[in-house]
Amino acid sequence: MSADKRAELAGGPTGLPRHIAVIMDGNGRWAKMRGMPRTAGHSAGADSFRRAARYCQKLGVEYLTVYAFSTENWKRPREEVEGIMALLEKYLRQALRDMDKEQIRICIFGDLTPFSPKLRQMCAACMEKSAGYTGGQVNICLNYGGRDEIVRAAKRWAAAGCPELTEDVFGGYMWGGHIPDPDLLIRPGGEKRISNFLLWELAYTEMYFSDVLWPDFDEKEFDKAIAAFRERNRRFGDVQ
Length: 240
Ligand code: IPE
Ligand code: IPE
Ligand code: MG
Description:
This protein is an alpha/beta fold. It has a single domain (17-230), classed as Decaprenyl diphosphate synthase-like (Undecaprenyl pyrophosphate synthetase, 3-Layer(aba) Sandwich), CATH 3.40.1180. The chain contains eight helices and six strands; from the N terminus they run αβααβαβαβααββα. It has helices at 3-10, 27-33, 38-59, 78-102, 117-130, 146-159, 167-171, 219-230; strands at 19-23, 63-70, 105-109, 137-144, 184-187, 206-209. Strand 3, helix 5 and strand 4 form a beta-alpha-beta unit. Helix 2 (27-33) crosses helix 3, helix 3 packs parallel to helix 4 and helix 4 runs parallel beside helix 5 (117-130). The two termini are 34 Å apart. Magnesium ion (MG) binds at residues 25, 189.
């Protein structure tokens, strides 16, 4: 990317977001519109995710947190859940192969207990292998729920012997520990809701909703979202 393009995206009152969160929604409808099975939509969604991770790295966004599978998504038909698990395995295998080149640190947020031993082992290998990488961080939320994260944080705090509690201390028990909260939340796919994503961390995040379905949410759409973010006046409760 040219220095001009980067400066253009980073300029404006709010600058370039350090942390972008994405609810990767609309895969099923994308497939349906094409007369394809929903799993084909998830496969296109996985491609879109890889492209997004590379683009955010190129822009210099330090953290990208994506919602890939919620604690509620288990309600879906068995074939769809199995299809998503197979795609996850495929993604992790490729990531393990290519990650040295990309230098993106991968973290998984969510309780992996219900996943197959193979998937869990691949998740652990990805996190371990990329732990020292410095080319940005991608957090993949799997079997993730915002309420579950808060309850889990409370349990971890209690297990640690109930240390003096502040917002900062409690935030440290979330999956991401002390990483900065998202500056920008993007929800493609037309819905205007949070669907149990990052309930604690989104306190002052700017929201961007788009009707574009996730598999079609390309670099141009990211540029639009960032341009909209740059126009926002973040007051954090203050007057300005
Ligand atoms: C998001 O796309 C992917 C997951 C929830 C796993 P959807 O599958 O929810 O797509 P739509 O909303 O049905 O179009
Ligand atoms: C949110 O999308 C979860 C993910 C994108 C992983 P959903 O499609 O599950 O959300 P709802 O059901 O429309 O709220
Ligand atoms: Mg959906």
